[in-house]
UniProtKB/TrEMBL annotation:
Protein name per its UniProtKB record: N-acetyltransferase domain-containing protein
Domain N-acetyltransferase: 63-206
Source domain of life: Eukaryota
InterPro entries xref list: Acyl_CoA_acyltransferase, GNAT_dom, Trichothecene_AcTrans
PANTHER family, A to Z: GNAT FAMILY ACETYLTRANSFERASE, N-ACETYLTRANSFERASE DOMAIN-CONTAINING PROTEIN
GO molecular-function term, one example from the UniProt record: acyltransferase activity, transferring groups other than amino-acyl groups
A Pfam family annotated for this UniProt entry: Acetyltransf_10
UniProt source species: Trichoderma asperellum (strain ATCC 204424 / CBS 433.97 / NBRC 101777)
């Protein structure tokens, strides 16, 4: 399969959302936050709008990997660029089909860990989502996408800070990222309302090396 890396069209925002939900179908946090088919339907639409924001806003970005033969979106990366003095905190109004008690604390936790890692006034790239359709896993699409973000960050001499699910830590380490902190929450297992499952991620950082090729 030949892979093409490009900026998606606005019409492809739906495909990006579909890839996201396919990739995160086994993720405990996804189903804790959006526990029903109605919740996942809302999340799909939210992700579509999120992709459009990343296409339109100067401090955001999105790239997709597409199958050159079919044109299908098989993977994507979204990122923010944190700049000192730029207020990007927007409080979300979540509907009843979403669990606010797991959405807002997770967002606050990840922000707190990043600030602890690099400081309040730091400039850095923050990949928010990197997902690959499971049917295309292991073919290098995510590596190509993240390498493009590394090139952008290196051009500004800025680090990249992200939160990695446990099964992705090794993937990021292969691309030069280092674990700098841990974050965890108690979540309900799929189909339950009782938070009895321990969920954890790793905060990781990549720093461009002067004169190094990406």
């Amino acid at each position: 399969m030949a892979i093409v890396i490009c900026t998606p069209s606005e019409a492809e925002a739906v495909a990006v959302s579909t890839v996201h939900l396919r990739a995160m179908d086994e993720n405990l946090l996804t189903h804790a936050q959006f526990p029903s088919p109605e919740g996942l339907g809302f999340f799909h639409a939210w992700l579509e709008n999120n992709t459009l924001e990343h296409l339109r806003d100067d401090d955001k970005g999105v790239l997709v990997a597409k199958d050159e033969e079919t044109g299908d979106v098989v993977s994507f990366v979204k990122w923010l660029v944190h700049r000192p003095g730029h207020d990007e905190a927007v409080e979300e109004e979540w509907p009843e089909v979403a669990r606010k008690e797991y959405l807002d604390p997770y967002a606050a936790l990840t922000e707190r860990v990043r600030v602890k890692a690099v400081g309040v006034e730091a400039e850095y790239y923050h990949p928010t989502y990197i997902c690959t359709d499971p049917r295309w896993a292991g073919r290098g699409a995510a590596s190509l996408l993240l390498s493009k973000v590394q090139e952008l960050a290196a051009a500004e001499n800025l680090p990249i800070v992200l939160e990695a699910t446990m099964n992705a830590v090794t993937f990021y380490q292969k691309l030069g990222f280092e674990v700098i902190d841990e974050l965890s929450m108690m979540l309900p297992p799929r189909g339950s309302t009782e938070p009895t499952e321990f969920y954890e991620e790793r905060c990781m950082i990549w720093v461009p090396q002067k004169g190094a090729a990406i």
